[in-house]
Every structure is written in C-alpha cells, then in structure tokens.
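for the record, two folds in this file. i put them one after another cuz i was lazy. first one right below, seq on top, structure tokens after. the second one comes after a little note so u can tell where it starts
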Amino acid sequence: MAQIFISLGSNIDKEKNLLSGLQTLIKYFPTYQHSTVFESEAVGFAGNNFYNSVFAAQTEMSLEAVCRLLKVIEYDHGRRCNEKKFSPRSLDLDILFYDHIICSSPAQLPRDEITKNAFVLQPLAELAADFIHPIENKSIRQLWQEYHNPTQKLWKVEFPKL
C-alpha cells in the first residue's frame, strides 16, 4: 500500500466544488484523513479567494492510475485541459506525495508547491507532521515551522465533516 497526499483547491463555487471533489475522492479512498479547510487569497493572479485542504489515504493504485483518476475528477468538475496555470479553478487536485517517490513524470513528486505555499504546507502539516520530505530531508512539521511568507495568509473555514 502506498501512502498518498492530495491537495484540493477551488475558487469557483468553492464550497460546492471542494465538497463534491472530497466526496468523490472518498468513493475511491474510503479510509482517509482530511485536513481543516483553509481560505486564502489567490497566488500568482488576481482572482477570488480559494478554499484549500489536504486529503491523505493509502492505495494499491499505481502512481499513474492515481494521476489519471485526479484528472478525471477535475474534468468532471468543470476543469478544462487548456486552462492557464495561474487562473481560477473549479477544482484543482494535485498529488503531493506518493510514498517517498521522487519523479517528474507522470507528476512532479514531491510537488514543488509544498515548500512554497502556506495553503498546501499548513494543512499537510496537520495530517503528516512526521512525514519526511524526501528532497528536503526534513519533517513536514519542521518545514511548516521554518516557513515564512507573510504575504500568504490563511483563515480556517467551517466546512461539513464527512
């Protein structure tokens, strides 16, 4: 079984899309953990605030199969393959870790945003404080404690528990 961590984000009909995306992930990964949902300003472009969280599970699916599944779920929630990198999102699902694999294909692992964005690192630290980042060789807790970017602010959001 592989340990996976997936970030969820949305800034288009964000509560509805994040909840629906989460419910869909649970169908495939029924034994899971889900972080607090945070609201943050858009990073890299002017746009509506985002809801973000992290989902953790174990799976027997291959990395390639998980990546394909995440794309299907995004497309089922209105995402299109030609969208710009920094643009509004109905649902954005990114695999952050698949065990301790380091690779660039079929996804960049570990995901670069982990160490750059509070909206990924803080919810990840809730679920995986002792997980060791295979490139940084530090725990997620330590990365969060060392993180400093005062321009990225997060607010906890009341969100339905599943």
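(here's the note) second protein begins now
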Amino acid sequence: MVKHDFKVQTKWRGGREEVGTVNGDIISEQISIPAPLGGNGVGTNPDELLVSAASSCYIISLAATLERAKFTDINLINNSVGTALFENGKFKMVTITHYPKISVTAEDKENLEKRLPKLLEIADNNCMISNSIRNNVEIKIQASIQ
C-alpha cells in the first residue's frame, strides 16, 4: 500500500464577506464565497476547487489510459461543469460532467471510436477524485473525438 499526504493550510478572518487564503506545496490562492451565492467572489472558492480537482484528475487519468492503450499522438482539452443544488437548507454538488475533446491522428480515429467507451470508463475508475466522491456526486462523461 502506498500512502501520501496532501497538505494545505487555509486561513480566514471575519465573517462571510471576507477573503481567506489556501496554500499548499504549489497552490497559493485567495478564497471567498462566490458572488452568485452572496459572497464577494474574490479568488477561487471550494466549489470551483472541487470541480478543478475532478477535471484535472480526470484529464490526467484519461491521458494515462490512452497512452497505455497505445494512443500516443493525442491532444486533450477537458471542460468540466459542476452543478450544485440548494435543498433542505444545504448546498450540495450533485453532478460533475466532463466534456473531454480528444484529438488523434486520422489513422487512430477509427480505432479510438471503437474503444472509447471502455477507455473513458477505465480513466474514470482510475481517477482518485472520482473514486473519492463517487456515490455522493454523479460523474458524467461526454467525450468527442476531433
């Protein structure tokens, strides 16, 4: 078993209209409540960070999955949308939908089209963030090949 700790520090002072910070080994960003949710919208926010984590994890997992499947001349662009709902007095992220666009050579396109559904599933199953939020947040994948 491999264990790794990912460490971040968050700081906040004051009430909901204030701005805090999140700092890790690489990330250093201001955080606040998003403006559409009644905050001041400075920096990023936990919701955006969750969707960013899911999106970046998925694109890395997809790249590795395609590489193992012998698709090496690829270009990936992934757009992700997290949908949150407010019900029973609480906000909850209910879905994250990934929209990966996969560019491959003309020679690889037909082969990838045949194998894509299984490869998308493998990538999702190998993504740590997907595995961590599964059963709490629905993960959807709507890929296209360019």
